[in-house]
Every structure is written in structure tokens, then in C-alpha cells.
Amino acid sequence: MKTFYTKTILATLIFILSIAAAHAQQNDDLINVLLKKNLISQQEADSIRSEQAIKEQKKLDKEKENQHNISIGSKALQISGLVQARYQGFAQTGVNDAFDLHRARLDAKGNITDKWSYEVYTEFAATIKLLDAYTAYKFGDFLRISAGQFKVPLSYESLVSDSQLDFIDRSQTVEALAGRSNDVIGNQNGRDLGVQVNGSFAKLNDRYLFGYTLGVFNGAGYDVTTDNNNYKDIAARLAVHPLKVLSFGGILYEGEDIAAGAAKSQARNRYGFDGQFVSGPFSVAAEYLHGTDGNINKDGWYAQAGYYVVPKFLQILGKYDTYDPNKVNTTDRTYIYTAGVNFVFNQWTKLSVDYLFRHEEAAVQINNNILEIQLQIAF
User: Fold this and answer.
1) What is the largest CA-CA distance in the chain?
2) Distance in angstroms (rounded) separating the CA atoms of residues 105 and 163
3) How far apart, in whole angstroms, are the C-alpha atoms of residue 294 and residue 262?
């Protein structure tokens, strides 16, 4: 009972001091009143004032750190965004060079409680699309439950944020097998409607050795009102971090979907594995994906490396990217060799220049290399 009363009194005092922290003058007046009534000593009063000054300074430092972020309430609403303006120069005859708005996005997220959060992420380029709309509850690092519309754990590169990609474009195999531009279900931006659990476990020093994600999804893609079949798709990913600079991952996806123009549903299964190594200015990443759509087997992989010639400013990159849309056909595999340069001006602004050398297995080659230049503003 004594412990209960002690906790109650402490909680009440903390509540009073929290209110006073928002009103510095009122707080000082309160301290003076307590001093006059001899309820606290001068030393205690000085200690309270000192603690208050430290809190105020921390608050100012935090506001300065987030000067490009809009916050309403106590983490209740945080607004951020992404704009990527792109130029593409095509070597192929008959294809016009052009500027376009690659991505223009607005992200609204926040915390309902310390453990309960939400996010609404919208695309405004070309057509308005709702990308993410979900709520999540975190029981701890070991378990977080999410429900709504969000990215499917179906490829490491697909899960990387658009603003954090090393290259302007994702690899061919990810675009074709992870619910993106060339997938049989159409361009779903790697997203779907469903529920998933994820977390990390087996902590060693300052990192977890393992991370997992397991989800159940409609399989029909994002921003849709109904599923196109009664089958629910299952996606799973396991990540291993044996060293601080080294990570490995494996994914498994089993689903059934109706491809565009198809009369009935068919299997849409995936599996793959990936690895990343990042040490100082040097980074390496690779990923393999295999897909089965109906009776057609597909696969592809990429490997890339990057190095900051000038720390945190000038990065040079190279990437090998290959994809085969039908394993039976021996003349349809495509190879892309990409050379890239990133100029990172600060944490919000980046200029990327990529040149894609394209090569097909077909006997007759197409002169279809591409130069891409993209300016990114993230706020």
C-alpha cells in the first residue's frame, strides 16, 4: 500500500512539473510559493530550476534538429515528403528524351501512444495514389503487429526506401517479381493489403542477430477495395546479422493471383536471398529472386558496389543486373550494366547520374542505352 501511495504521489508531482515545463513563468512562481511556505529548501528549489533549464535546452536542440519536420502535438503528427525530378535521355531511335516527375510524395505519420503508431503515405506524381495506410502496435523489439496497406516483405531492394536507393531505378528482377512495374499483377509499388508481424531477437552487444517478418495479404495489390480471388498470400522474410557490417536475408512468398487479362487465378510464388556489406565508405549488395507465375519460371539477380570518394558527398557506383522472364526461352534474358555517381549535398538533397548499358540475348541488338539524371529533395 505504501508503494502505491508513493508511486501515486510521484506521478502527481511529475504531472504537475510537466505542465509547469510548458509554462516557465508559472513554474518559477510555483517554486517561489513553495519556498515561502517552507515546503522546499533553497537547495531543492535550485535543483528544480536547474533540471528545468536542462529540459528546455534539450527541447530547443530537438526543435533545431527537426527544423525541416513539422510536428503537431507530442509526436502525434509528423509531416515529411519526397520530390524526385528526373531527366531521361534515350539512345533508342523513336523514343523521345524527356523530363518527368519520378516521385512526389507526402508522408503523414505519428504516435497515438508510445507503442501505437500510424502512417499515411501518398503519391502525387502522374496520378494520386495511396501507397501506405496502416496502423501498428509495438509490444517490444521482439514483436510489432501492423494492419492495413504497406510494403510486402518480398525482396530486400523493394523494401529500401525510395529516397535511400543508391541508384535511380531498382533492378529488373525486383521490378518484375516484387509487385512492381513489370509484375504480372501490375505495378503495385511493392505493396498490398494485409496484416503482418515483425521483430528482432537474440541481441548481441548493440545489435540483434536475427530479424523476422511474417505476413498474410490479399495478393491483389495496393489501393484496391476487394480481393480478386479467395486465396490469401503468405510472405516471410528472415534476416541474419552475424557482424555489424554484414547482413543476409531470405524470403519466401506463396500466393495465387489473377494476372491482367487472365480468365482464372494462377500460382504466383517467389523465393530469394540477399546479402549486404557496409564498412565505412565502401558498400556491396547482391540479391537473387526466383518467381513462378502459372507454369512460367522466371529469375534474376543483381550485384552492386559503391564507394564514397569524398566522404558523405561524392559516391561512385557500379551495378550488374540480369533478368530472365521465361527460363524455357533461351533468347529473352536481359543484362544491364549501370555506372552511377551520387552527389550528396546534405541529408535532404541529392543529385544522381546513372548511365545504363543494356544488352539482350536476342541476335539483333537494340541501341537502347539510357542516361538518367535525378535531383532529389527529401524534407
Assistant:
1) 95
2) 11
3) 11
Q: What are the cell numbers at 233? A: 498470400
- Find all residues with CB under 8 Å of 81, minimum gap 6, and list them: 104, 105, 106, 107, 378, 379
Burial of 220 (0-12, 13-18, 19+ CB in 10 A): buried
Could you read off the pLDDT of 275-307 as tens digits, one per residue?
A: 999 999 999 999 999 999 999 999 999 999 999
- End-to-end Cα, the chain, rounded Å: 51
Question: What b/e readout covers 32-49, taking b as 16+ CB neighbours within 10 angstroms?
Answer: eeeeeeeeeeeeeeeebe
Residue 366's pLDDT is 85
Could you tell me the domains of the chain? 2-63 (no CATH), 66-378 (2.40.160.10)
pLDDT at site 83: 97
pLDDT at position 352 is 98
Q: How many residues in total does the chain contain?
A: 379
User: Which one, of 39, 40, 74, lies nearest residue 59 by Cα?
Assistant: 74
| Spatial separation of the C-alpha atoms in residues 307 and 196, rounded to whole Å | 35
pLDDT band at residue 18 using 50, 70 and 90 as cut-offs: very low
